Model the fold of this input.
Amino acid sequence: MQIVLDPPRGVAPVRLGMTLDEAVAAFAAWGTPRVYPADAVRDFDVVSVEYDGIGFQAALERDRQVTAVTVWGPDGDEDPGVHVLLDGLDVFRTPADEILAHVARKGRHVNDDDPRAPYVPGVTLAFTRDTSQEVRRYENGLPVHFTSVLVADETYREK
Done:
């Protein structure tokens, strides 16, 4: 199965701007979604589901619409049948440095001031490499592959 990241529109079939009911229906294709309502710690609703070792989460902030979709890669050495693609590159199987170089070649600025959490302003794509799992790492200690990716609208980082 292929999941396509489509910044700044979403992660098909979940699109930015969807309502809670629409997001739940979209995630239902992958399993039984869980809804976590806003609470004292988090002032927005979250819908999440896991499919074949890949985690998906939609945040519903402004006007209770989806404002961001986060995808978590597999734990450790798991090799799920799901491929999460950005322009045809698998975000969790292609080395992180290659993904960032590809984004830069497409004319996008990559902010990598924090190499554990680089992001592309104005699209928005935000990546993380943080993990406590035993994974392959570069000599500097950073995991070779990303552990999650967030897709949001152009103004997400400004909030």
Observations:
- The chain has two helices and twelve strands.
